[in-house]
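Lab manual, section 2.4: Encoding a predicted structure.

Procedure: take the sequence of the chain (374 residues), apply the prediction step described in section 2.3, and record the output as structure tokens. A sample record is shown.
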Amino acid sequence: MQLIIKLSFILVVLLLLSGCGTTSTTSKTVHLVPGMTYYDGPEKLSGKLVFLLRHDYNQRYNDDAAASIYKFDLVENKLTKLTDCPNGIFISSEGGNEFCVNYGLGDYDEKKVTNVFVYSESLHQNRIVRLVAPPNRMSVIDSGHAFFEVQNKKGVKLIDYNIASAKEQVVEFSDSSTWEYQDYGDVLVPPHNTNNVHFNYKSYGKRLSEGKDYPRGYYVFDINTGKILGPATLSNDEYDKSRIFKTFDGRFIFFEGSGSPVEGFKLVSSPLDDYATQSEDPKRQNVKVLHNFSRLPAIGYGIYLLTQMSPDGHYALVRLEEPTIRKSGMLPGFVNTYYLVDVTNGDTRILLKDETDKKTNSSIFTVYWVQGAE
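Recorded output:
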């Protein structure tokens, strides 16, 4: 019986390891900041990595300098501190010129997370935006504007904030019928365009006043004129960037399995997205397996997440998120390992390790790979 148990254990371990094969061969190791290590490799990577460093995760009280925003130039291997800021939810524009941090000062209270720290690298300017309620969503684009979606009793209000002038305006139809509820949300930046954004409009409930009835759907908002131009015409895969990842040659990258497309162990490439592959290519004749990640981290509740594509579309960035135990009185945190996957041949290696620093208690959660402001 003991022999059977031992053999069964060995078999399980072998099965878990069978999907590993992740290489970490590097030419140079760079300790960017306390708690984060970058592994330089043979690839000619472009763009920049931007992230928010929380200086001390044991510090419950949030203040104006509890964190800092950094950028790391992948071409020059150069790290630059951009600004100090409060700790909070961090987002970056696709070009890496504008950044937002949604936060609340003092002890954390989700009802008080109504402040947004906005920073523009090109303007060397930071602003504080105070909202009436925590934003449902934030968006920043590389033309000096930030957009905030705020829930109220009448629906979702969309605010356009001009960083240079520190002025804001509400995005809405001037001649529409008035409804009990109206939503202006889901702001998205069209590919290769920083002059306008698209938002999703819908009205529902009782009609309160007469006017022009606009159908539900996406519309174009011109940033320069501050006007809504008309309906938008983009395909679904150009909108849903949180679920659809495309390579430089138009193929789709996704995880197979129950967590598809963003979570799993087997990362694949296909000429169709994950839904279309299941229905139109059930035998997976056109599916190419890029990498099988090790299942061992799953024992400790670790998960692999497809987070984004490189700006040039040649690499996929996969984050392994693993729980970690912190000092007494603190909630469990996470450590992250970022893997670089070549979409042409499946070569995979570690790019970044976000290891909670024991000396300074610093931590990093979100990393964005951006083209970089010039």
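Check your result against the sample. The longest strand covers residues 196-209.
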